[in-house]
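I am writing to request your help with a piece of structural work I have in hand. I set the record out below, with my sincere thanks for your time.
___
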Amino acid sequence: MIIGIDFDGVVSDSTRLKIREAKRIYGIDLLPENCSIRTAEEAGLSREQYKELVRRIYGTELFLEADEVAGACRSLQLLNRDNLIHIVTSRDDQEADFAKKFLEKRKIPYDKFTNTSNESKLSVCQGNNIDSFIDDTYENLVDLSICKFRLYLFSTPSNRNITIEHPDIKRANNWKELYRFLKAHCK
């Protein structure tokens, strides 16, 4: 099975860094649920400020201080024994380099890394025969639903209140639960 995995919010967690840097740069107190482009405005951070904040974190050595999403490394090590792991992210080239360094530093296994900065996740998934895809952005999964492979919304503080209305998308609350879902389809 080929498992496609979004990077930010599923493998890496930069929430702590976003909270710290938003306070330092803008004087704004972000809560964990306001650490996405979709929710940052609720805390008073403009879309442009959020993009700049992300650029300052993802495109620098600071990103290597980001946390691993709990259970990601161990689950991916186990899944990678019998499956191919394809990391699919949308960053600029410098940010993608830091994402790879993050994976290497934490010994998180993957078989392929695709930066979709100029391409849709849909075309990447279709072109790489993805069987299952995990993302923390519901709208991305809705876009992918035309492919008819297994889709999982990985829970984060900024998406916990989203109601899944699409019948082909299933919520995974953590890596332990996601691992069980994926292993059930590996047989």
The first helix runs from residue 15 to 26. The two ends are 10 Å apart (CA to CA). The chain is about 40% helix and 15% strand. The chain has a mean pLDDT of 93.
